[in-house]
Amino acid sequence: MASFSVEEFIGNGVLNGLLQKLLDEGWDDVPTLKTMGSEDMDSLHMTQKQKDAIGIRSYLHDRGLMQYADKMEDCGRSLQELLNLSSMDLASQLEMKRGHIARFINKTRCDDSFKLHAIVARRSSSMMMHRDDSIPKSLGSNSSNNMKRSNVRSNATSDRSLKQSMVDMKIKDGYVFKGIVAGELAEPRACGCVNPSPISDQVAPYSAIENISVQKLTPEYKIGMEPLVKTKAPPLKASELWRDKPAVFLCLRRPGCIMCRAEAHQFYSRKTIFDALGVQLFAVLHEHIELEVNDFWPRYWGGVVLLDQGRDLYKALGGGKLLKEKFLSGFLLNPRALSNYKRAKTMKIEYNFKGKGETKGGLFIIGSGKSGIAYQFIERNFGDWAPLAEVIEICTQMQNQEESHRECVLH
């Protein structure tokens, strides 16, 4: 599937006037935009034509048929009406090629795997049990039934969006992982006068992270949680965090950095996918500046924020030593870092220069218990992001392994 920017996805039709509002509200990449539900659309005061356009473009994007988006939107029909057209009408009215017609009318094309349905089904079942238990007993049976029907509709919409988001992120056969573990090689800069620091090409051993001490600076965000940020939590052993569930640890250089904020936002906006895969998300900082934490959480990251004061996770990323680079050589003289900055800049994110930004970060995916580090990404150039599709693929593989292990135990 070709990669599309939000601007390319919404085109020049009825959605174009919403572009800035969509970006301001965090609908700033195509996979996130395609998860938009009816409540989200209503909150943006979208017209029925705009809602239809989102549905049409999402359907076409899933099938690699975006070249027909403008024509379909202009014809004024809904997606269902378009799907009810005959092959002859699609060819004559929309100039659609025969092979593309077959792809367009095949509604099951993107149901990639039985496993994806199973994940969504389990999540739906869990959500329904929780929501049904929360229905007040004092309500009459009609009110209760209405609430249940409403929950079913809401869950169905949410599950379809979740399923499609996971399909969008699925890595195709033949994909070459960027990582070591990960990250593109840093190149010499300033006409070869400045060489990047050497980086270990080995995944950190589990012993390097097992006994690290961290401190929770924020909880998982919920309404009313803000006062808890002021409560200082005691340090804890990091391995306690992944004892029962695998976890992703996103190690950031600075919470005020535009590139760090953009990466954190991109990851946390996919939280429903990680929840479905049974994976926790943690953001890690190496210094505690209270105002910076408050600006970062929950606006750019609504999950738990950890302080690694000893910078031990950062040392593990660097093979036992901190990966550091000066602002001049690591940013101003580095074309890749400047490109990363420009990419983040398009997201219209506020930023500042408070704190120490020379220590490079990265990302770990750590299995539950003592199963070890499944994936490691190193920020070789300032602003390198761990490829989200790779991270989700590794988490999916981990869940497959855990399910296979459970089945073996049961049998």
From TrEMBL:
Query: What UniProt keywords are attached to this protein's entry?
Result: Cytoplasm, Redox-active center
Give the signal peptide as a residue range, or say none if absent. Answer: none
Keyword check for Transmembrane: no
Predominant location: cytoplasm
Location(s), subcellular: Cytoplasm
Query: What's a Pfam family in this record?
Result: AhpC-TSA_2
Cellular component GO terms held in the UniProt record: cytoplasm
List where Polar residues composition bias occurs: 139-159
Q: Which domain of life is it from?
A: Eukaryota
Q: Note down the stretches annotated as region Disordered.
A: 130-161
> What family is reported?
Belongs to the peroxiredoxin-like PRXL2 family. PRXL2A subfamily.
Annotated protein name in UniProt: Peroxiredoxin-like 2A
